[in-house]
Amino acid sequence: MNIDTHCKPNFKKARHLATELLLKQDLDSLFINIIDFDIDIPVKIDSVQHYAKVTKRHINDFTCDGFDGCLVLKYSRCNVILYDETETNIARRNWGIAHELGHLYLEHETDGRIQEQEANVFAGQLIVPEAVLYSILVHKGSIKIKDLTNNFNVSKECSKNRLKSFIKRLNFINIDSNLNKKLSEKFRPCIEQCFYEYKQKYIKDAN
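Structure (tokenized):
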């Protein structure tokens, strides 16, 4: 039975770690693909199909009835995140990898309710960071679900949940924090490119 190792989820730590990882990446788009990341902890990302072939083992050795498209194999020297290459929903696969990466960065030893919540917050911040959503809100004047589905690597369901969480936390986001400032600046060219039409309309209306 899985047991939570602490009483309350540490969402602040999850967001902080995800933000730090984002700032280390060379990104030119809001469409975050975790597979392309330069990860600074000992972990490899591979498809379960390829990993089984390389290790000359059957896929069932790594999966089970509970396999939902992504899992972690923990080794002493380097962990391995395995995903299902037959998954046609790239956004779902990307979220699964980010979620498992969250478990590793947060050094979870179990996968209880609290650990799952923390890993979800890590994944959300990694793929759709709050500071970027805030910048879009300021740049565009509003933010909708389609803004997320059209520009980020997330599904419609994830977009709904992420936007709901963002609005709920809007008054608590410290946009002036050092990390958030850096993140906003990093993604500013991407935001301006994606929402160019709104910027032009704003300039036109202002004149």
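The CA atoms of residues 34 and 94 lie 6 Å apart. The chain has nine helices and three strands.
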